[in-house]
């Protein structure tokens, strides 16, 4: 199985979050300040949004880019594309204080984003 593109996984997760909330495309697009067509292309994995647009869409869904990143990692694990590992052992990805993929988002657990993007 070929590894899906990051934009495809992001789109899948964003669409899943929107549908779980029972929200329409135009509502989330308006909240994010982008066109409905652009959000549709993002959700279908056809466009790769800038980090600013990604943050706006996540914000429109009541979540964060950090939560989306965490959910993306989970999705890749479910597809068995990447082995489950401690980031501190990944070449070039080690950083002080980031020993697990969950550490960067632990401070946000007061919100509902974990449930929104959980696979």
TrEMBL record:
SUPFAM superfamilies: lambda repressor-like DNA-binding domains (SSF47413). One of its GO terms (molecular function) is DNA binding. Transmembrane segments: none annotated. Residues 14-68 form the HTH cro/C1-type domain. It comes from the Bacteria. This is Transcriptional regulator with XRE-family HTH domain.
